[in-house]
Design goal:
Layout lengths: L9 H15 L1 H8 L5 H26 L7
């Protein structure tokens, strides 16, 4: 990953870097690796994430078809 520093503006470069890391999911990965996660907790978390993704996809599809109003 690479971020260009323009005009010695390190603050802007740091903001860009943070945004890129956030988009890649690095912070979430670091948080999950901070402590050991039991296999049962991992399964429950992954299942909850899958349910969340499925609901989001269904909501987007319903919005595209005009069944739901956009927020």
């Amino acid at each position: 990953m690479q971020v260009l520093v323009r005009d010695n503006n390190v603050d802007q470069a740091l903001r860009v870097l943070k945004k890129k890391l956030q988009r890649e999911g690095v912070f979430r990965e670091m948080k999950t690796r901070r402590a050991f996660e039991k296999p049962s907790e991992k399964r429950a978390r992954e299942k909850a994430e899958a349910v969340r993704r499925a609901r989001k996809a269904a909501r987007k599809l319903a919005q595209r078809e005009g069944l739901l109003k956009k927020r």
